[in-house]
Amino acid sequence: MEKIFFSNWENIIRLLITGVLAYVGLLLLLRTSGKRTLSKMNAFDLIVTVALGSTLASTLLNKSVPLLEGLLGMALLIGLQFVITWLAVRFKAVDRLVKAEPSLLVYEGHVLPDAMRQQRITEGEILTALRENGINSLSEAAAVVLENNGTLTVLDSISHGVKSALNDVPRA
User: Fold this and answer.
1) Which of 23, 105, 120, 170 has the most CB atoms around it within 10 Å of its CB?
2) Domain map of the chain by residue range?
3) C-alpha 18: how far from its chain's center?
4) Fold exhibited by the domain 103-166
5) Where does the YetF-like N-terminal transmembrane domain lie (predicted)?
6) What is the pTM of this model?
7) Hey, is 105 helix, strand or coil?
8) How much is the average pLDDT of 9-24?
9) pLDDT for 160
């Protein structure tokens, strides 16, 4: 019954040393990889983040994973993310592969029910986004866009015509 709460001091000391060193190593890797690694997440970024967390946990808790191997695994994930994002900036095909397109849900004050259904967004969620942006009425919304990171962006002026901010949004 004793092993539920404590097995031995060697495991505790290993966890403390490995935890501190892995944490410092991960911080250094994240700082050197740039701001993109910690930006608002799309699906690709979320996968990398979850994989980093899993690798860190394995390094901390699994005695068969040495610290250097855990740090190398984290560096590999961050390096792959860097390469993919570097390629995505330079090649549209790679960008389309790793990022979802933004989706137009409201245009010139009218909801687009097919787009809402396809993206599983309710009218209540759109109304919430309007209120959060100080817009009193759906008719005042030039556009509501579901961004590739899952946030709703609201454009509020239809009097000036189509906005260039919608250039990358299909069907805008």
Assistant:
1) 105
2) 2-97, 103-166
3) 27
4) CRO Repressor (3.30.240)
5) 20-86
6) 0.67
7) strand
8) 88
9) 56
